[in-house]
């Protein structure tokens, strides 16, 4: 990370007007799957209760992973294919990037291992989640469905425990919450995730989404071709993505029932 910091600090680096710049995902090369947190806002946990077997609130964070090939740029199209899934859902989140490798990191030193923060939209395919036993990895791993960015704010410039995040679909606000509402704060996430497991510099961890997801609305709201999705916050910028119907099924002979 020292090398990255020195490059970013070079005064001779070319400067471009933001209006004419094309932003890529701040992180695009991964050592492993994208690390994710589920049910990390209690209002989101409660809004989905009727869609699963009754259960008590978890006493520790819920983790899962998704393919790094889900990542796309903050203004790129979000890919959908209604032949694969008809329940493409949105999830606005704050993601963190580890800057220092560690294992069994204590809470008091958790923030020492964070390089920075950015926005993410953890687009999910709810029917694929159910098709594959209710686990989340497959139903969140379709290619080119997770915008990251537009900017990666370094840890010394950002308070991850006091940030408002929002998601708008075609101009209507569907998610709005503060990271203060997290069920498990970021030091808890890092301590629990790294318990006996090495997290490495460059790893990305999504920290969970608040209530307002599409599957819990009445009637449900899912993404479709032509939709505009905006995720924004005051300090992490704004990503604006159009939903685009593309061929993701290809030559697969897997039969997906509607």
Q: What number of domains? A: 1
If strands are numbered along the chain, what order do they take across the biggest sheet?
4-15-14-11-12
- For the record, the CATH class is Alpha Beta
The 3D shape can be described as globular
Number of strands: 15
CATH topology title? Fumarylacetoacetate hydrolase, domain 2
Termini separation comes to: 47 Å
The fraction of residues assigned to DSSP E strands is 25-35%
Number of helices: 4
Strand count, sense and closure of the main sheet? 5 strands, mixed
Walk me through this protein's architecture.
The protein has about 260 residues and is mostly beta strands. About 10% of the residues lie in helices and about 25% in strands. The protein is built from 4 helices and 15 strands. The strands form 5 sheets. A 5-stranded mixed beta sheet has the order 4-15-14-11-12, with no helix packed on it. The longest helix has 8 residues. The protein is globular and about 50 Å long. The N terminus is likely disordered.
In short:
The protein has helices spanning 2-8, 42-47, 126-131, 186-193, and strands spanning 34-38, 62-66, 71-72, 78-80, 88-89, 92-98, 114-121, 124-125, 146-147, 153-154, 164-169, 172-178, 204-206, 228-233, 237-245.
What is the topology?
Elements: H1 2-8, E1 34-38, H2 42-47, E2 62-66, E3 71-72, E4 78-80, E5 88-89, E6 92-98, E7 114-121, E8 124-125, H3 126-131, E9 146-147, E10 153-154, E11 164-169, E12 172-178, H4 186-193, E13 204-206, E14 228-233, E15 237-245
Parallel strand pairs: 3-9, 4-15
Antiparallel strand pairs: 1-2, 5-8, 6-7, 6-13, 7-10, 11-12, 11-14, 14-15
């Amino acid at each position: 990370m020292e090398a990255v910091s020195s490059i970013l600090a070079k005064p001779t680096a070319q400067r471009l007007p933001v209006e004419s710049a094309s932003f890529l995902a701040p992180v695009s090369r991964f050592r492993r799957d994208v690390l994710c947190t589920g049910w990390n806002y209690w209002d989101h946990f409660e809004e989905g209760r009727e869609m699963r077997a009754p259960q008590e609130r978890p006493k520790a964070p819920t983790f899962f992973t998704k393919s790094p090939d889900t990542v796309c740029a903050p203004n790129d199209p979000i890919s959908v294919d209604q032949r694969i899934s008809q329940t493409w859902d949105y999830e606005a989140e704050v993601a963190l990037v580890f800057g220092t490798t560690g294992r069994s990191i204590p809470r008091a030193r958790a923030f020492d291992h964070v390089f920075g923060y950015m926005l993410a939209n953890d687009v999910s395919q709810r029917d694929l989640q159910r098709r594959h036993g209710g686990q989340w990895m497959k139903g969140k791993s379709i290619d080119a469905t997770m915008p990251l960015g537009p900017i990666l704010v370094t840890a010394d410039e950002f308070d991850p425990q006091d940030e408002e995040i929002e998601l708008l679909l075609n101009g209507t606000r569907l998610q709005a919450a503060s990271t203060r509402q997290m069920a498990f704060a970021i030091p808890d996430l890092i301590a629990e995730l790294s318990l006996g497991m090495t997290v490495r510099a460059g790893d990305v961890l999504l920290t969970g989404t608040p209530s307002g997801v599409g599957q819990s609305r009445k009637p449900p709201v899912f993404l479709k071709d032509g939709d505009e999705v905006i995720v924004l916050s005051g300090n992490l910028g704004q990503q604006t993505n159009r939903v685009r119907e593309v061929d993701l099924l290809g030559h697969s002979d897997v039969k997906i029932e509607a």
